[in-house]
Write a structure and sequence with these properties.
Elements (H helix, E strand, L loop, with lengths): L22 H4 L21 H14 L6 E4 H7 L9 E5 L1 H10 L4 E9 L3 E10 L2 E11 L16 E6 L2 E6 L1 H10 L3 H4 L3 H5 L22
Parallel strand pairs: 2-5
Antiparallel strand pairs: 1-2, 3-4, 4-5, 6-7
Length: 220
């Protein structure tokens, strides 16, 4: 994650629960129009290991009262950016960080603990799912000009539901990710999202897999 300079993305807390994965149920913004398809040539690609890790994550959290969303490079890939993710980053709130650690107790590599940098204060933990590092980032706070820490970021209104192999997954929007990376001084990576912002891709529904009409058994 970008919080400590060792990973590839920012994190953000207070996101929707997997047991209510629909735009209406999550209280997510609706444009009133059907989602637009991803433009030709920009279909997202995820390594098989990351798809399996995401499958395990969604399956384990199904029905759990954990608010979370995908962020970082996997979010970039799900939005259609050509990028090879190294890990899978999950943004959540304070309670969610510890709930994730408990739900995946056998897969914990690093226990959840406070992490402080010049700009951010977060809770960070690390799991390993299907050989993929899964970074938990919760209760993120940005340092104010006064030097004090701000309130925890609440990106609920910046999350959308994307279809991944027929299953609805909460993901931070390109617009929110772009702003977060710019605030972290990651302008080069943020630039990867500009084409999506120009085409208002934060309102698109990303489809992965040949059959997206129903939930895939591998994801539920």
């Amino acid at each position: 994650m970008a919080t400590d300079g060792r990973s590839e993305q920012p994190g953000s807390p207070a996101l929707p629960s997997t047991r209510r994965l629909s735009a209406t149920g999550l209280g997510l913004p609706s444009s009133g129009a059907p989602p637009r398809p991803v433009e030709q040539g920009r279909e997202p690609r995820l390594p098989e290991s990351h798809r399996r890790a995401l499958s395990v994550l969604v399956d384990r959290l199904s029905g759990a009262d954990v608010r979370w969303a995908v962020t970082g490079s996997v979010a970039f890939a799900l939005h259609g950016v050509v990028i090879v993710p190294r890990d899978l980053d999950i943004s959540t709130d304070r309670g969610g960080a510890y709930a994730l650690e408990q739900a995946f107790a056998d897969e914990v590599v690093e226990r959840v603990k406070p992490l402080v940098s010049d700009r951010l204060r977060t809770l960070r933990g690390l799991l390993s799912l299907e050989g993929v590092p899964v970074e938990i980032v919760g209760d993120i706070r940005r340092r104010l000009r006064s030097g004090r820490w701000g309130r925890p970021v609440n990106p609920l209104r910046h999350a959308i539901v994307l279809m991944v192999d027929g299953v609805e997954v909460p993901v931070l929007t390109p617009k929110y990710l772009y702003r977060a990376y710019m605030q972290l001084g990651r302008a080069e990576k943020a630039a990867l999202l500009r084409p999506l912002l120009e085409h208002r891709a934060d309102q698109a529904l990303v489809l992965l897999g040949a059959d997206h009409r129903g939930s895939s058994p591998s994801m539920r």
